[in-house]
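Table S7 (text form). Paired inputs.
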Amino acid sequence: MPIGDQNLYSMMKSIVSFLCILLISLGAVKSQSDSLQIGLVANYPLGSDARDVGGKNHNGSFVAVASMANRFGEARKATHFEAKKGGYGSLTIPLDLNPSEYTELTITFWVKPDQLSSVSDILTMGDKKLYRSLSTTREDDNLVWRLGCGKKGEILGSRVTAGWTFIAMVYDQTNEAARLVVNNSVFAGRASVKSSRQKAVFGGFQGAVDDIRIYKRILSLVELEALSGALIDQDADEYAIILRGDFKKEKALAERVELDSLRTRIVVTEELSIYDPETKKSKIDFLTNGDTIRIVEMRDDWAIVEFKDARRGSVSFGNLYDYTRAENESGIARRISNTLSDLFNFTKLRSWIFVGFLLVLLFLAFKFYYKIDDFFMRMKKDNTAQASGGKADATVIEHKPSVLARLFPLNRFRKWPLYMGAIIATLVLGSVLLDQHEAEWFLNKGISIFPKNYDATVHWILWGGMVFILLMLITLLLESFTIAGPVWGAVRVVYLLLVNLIMMIVTFYLFILVLIILAVMFGLFLLSAAGTGNKYRCTRCGRVFYGSSCPNCG
């Protein structure tokens, strides 16, 4: 090929490559722009009005504001909150941005405070300590950004600085997580906020805001970078939210899927009530062990079933899953599961009677602990004697005891193996009271020898308790096999594990009993206070008094 043709070919190749890159770039920009329209609830460019250009017409209303230049220097394209009597100007948005309406929420905007010394509110929906909010606060003599996280506290961001600042408020109520993005920095934390009755209000400070966007989803960091126009690279790895989920909903969904796939069911209880398919209130029949039903239709929380002679009725999903089984499923496994579930049903009298029986067994285990342990140790000695031939004149060979033989059994606190169940029950109950959502996540998906994704106090409490229980189990195994040998040591381990299961169940019930007693005492106190809170006038001396009798004349 001639040199001129080669140069022309190279030039054309470069032009084509440039055009391809340009088209790809334009496509990526368009794709990013399209993604920023997904889940957009409202968009307020601001300036001289509070129109929503997001397509939903959620137009806001101003009080004491003026238009000013935005972050690009374009005149009358941003809104400035003016000082007025008793406070500052505001922008009210006619949207319910509470968790009851939006479990996932992202709010982005630009803000430019005039004052860098005073604490102020930026976005509120009522009490900023309880609800979703953004404000400024003081931390170590610095004015910093503050994201309200409800009962989980707050997330503190970077220092408040002069000039325009990009803010992203991110909430995930289901996973109890929140993120605050300030310019190029990410701040992460937990959040569990309440729902207020108030609408969202920007204001409470002297300064400006620009380009407010509200999304009913969690934006990615890439999308936030597209909105801010800059790379978010400080603690960016903290932005990802761990999916903890609502395990009760997940369980209910899994049960529904199973019922939908296996619609012919066999009853595994003494009485399964069938209700009117329309009202779902009046009982029309009941089925018993071995009866067959077929699910015809699945509704919100109930299923329409067909039973005897093609009759129809309704049964709740919970009862269908708990008290029926699929044709090819073992009935024994489902009955064992139901028995264990009933065992922790504190509303049934028979459960309390059974726990009373378990309490007697536990008392006997404590009372005869030393005798039962001595029995296990004797069995080891008998097995050793039989192994040596059992001869009375056999030469006795003295062996130096091993380290484990000198250590076990532990004499200082001999009954320690009986308390593992109580420790487990106390640990679970305490963690649920401290933080039910996080405790539920840990017990379902968070248990691990090596800590992973633990960012709440209750995670570390449960993990530390788990490690402690594991060490106790290892110690129990070593002690049992040391004092009772391999065979009877295994029997001792099984026996003590059963005793600890009983201890755990009894501890749960004792805890519930204490709560019931405290509730009754509190109720009696309120009744007593209500009774003594009434004023009376004595008919004999005319004195006004509280209580049942006059202190003056009786």
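Next pair, protein 2 of 2.
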Amino acid sequence: MLIQISITIPPGGAAGPFDLYSDVDGFTTPFETQVPAVDLVAGYTVTLPMGATIIRVCSVGTCENCIDLPTNCPTTTTSTTVEPTTTTTTTVDPTTTTTTTAEPTTTTTSTSTSTTTTTSTSSTTTTTTTASPKFQYELITNTPLDIGTVNLVIEVDSVQVVNETISVGNTSQVGTLNLTAGQVVTATMTNTKTGTFNFGNKITKDGVLYQPQDNCEPCVNELITSLSSSYTMGSANTTFVFQGDINPPTTTTTTSSSTTTTTTTAADLKLDWELLTTTPADIDTVSVEILADNVVVDTGSITSASNPFGGSPLIQSGANVVVNVTNAKSGNNVFENVARIGLNVNPPQTVVLNDQGSATGSLVSTFSFIMAVSTTYLDITGNVLVPTTTTTTTVEPTTTTTTTSAVGTCDLGTITITAPSQATTTTTSSTTTTTTTVGGLTQGLLSLTPQSSAALACVQSTILDVWISNVNASNIPTNNSIVYTNFQGTTTYTGTGDWHIVDINGSVGNSSFTIGANGQVSGPISLC
């Protein structure tokens, strides 16, 4: 039997969610749990346990209270007989191909406080009830002795329906929301503890991360994490788990009869690393392996079709971190492996690897550092450099013969010469220099590895083929110049704000300057 339950909550009341009990089992086991207050206020329909005459509605949230509601339903006894009554007769025609089954007659006798008995005859009625999809939630922690408080607020269609908190000694809250497909769910968890700690908030849906884990190491007092995108309820049940953790430094104390020794181990730090390339069309595979104190903590790789790639492993402060970079491509190639490290700076500024060379098959590079707050961002670049071919044309020497005589001017038919006092033979040898310009862009060779000063840049090799706009009459870039990596001028060189040099045929020498992220040249621009 279905029955609708409605309650009234005074303004400002904090009751709910609710569990529903019946007197069938002495109010021991709820037949509905975690029913939202908003549903009961609007009128909540449930299937009444057989024989129940009283329903007990208990608030199990912030407010804990119960109320008993009589069902006002009479006691019902149901019997079924296969004998048809005189009011209904069904004859099955054996000559037809359609089989008709006569439904049994159900006789229901209802008894109330009066002595009146009513007998009715009806056909069998089938009622199908489709249950609402359930949104189940759990608020938990993996560090029950270290948390302060972790609060969870859930809203459905912008209406708050859950506001629950866990703490030391009360480390789990669970509940179920009966929703309708299409309703929009948002949630926010607040992980709070006074002081500086390593906070971590994680949200999973049906056992899978709903969004990347939110770590703040360290943070002061709290870490607030919301659903990165609201969740639209589907037709199936779903379970969200909200986990808030606190990871303080680990302290180990050893006590003997005469001395007490305390050893404090520094907290874990997050290493944000990224593997990328500036020559995606030329690489094959670049892979990275990261070890902390000889234990592999992360790996990854990129290809020409899939890049960049990164990760964020937790590494103990003070650990010795070793990074192996393998740049692989069949045949003989010019490989380049570069790495920079720093403190949450993208890109970081300290160069810890600059390995370039020709090799067959692959170039493997290794570097190491000590994990610290100043080494929490790592940028690794793997490139395959295309050799640049330079053609020099030499003009055959030209011999010029000057014939003189004692006369100041003489006529030798077709040659008129103003003669010095003696005969002179001059031989000239020259080299042809070609400056290539396409569509207003001038071709040149750029140093590949950025440097922190013009002096350091001036000693670098120029090996990367580039095209530069707005050079001056001496083929020197200006502050209006843009550096491109193709002659069409559609792809800019991605600089880091550091120094490079460029060699342009026909210029008076190599010039040094800085290049920004959009390929913009800036100064001061000077000759090396």
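The longest strand covers residues 320-342.
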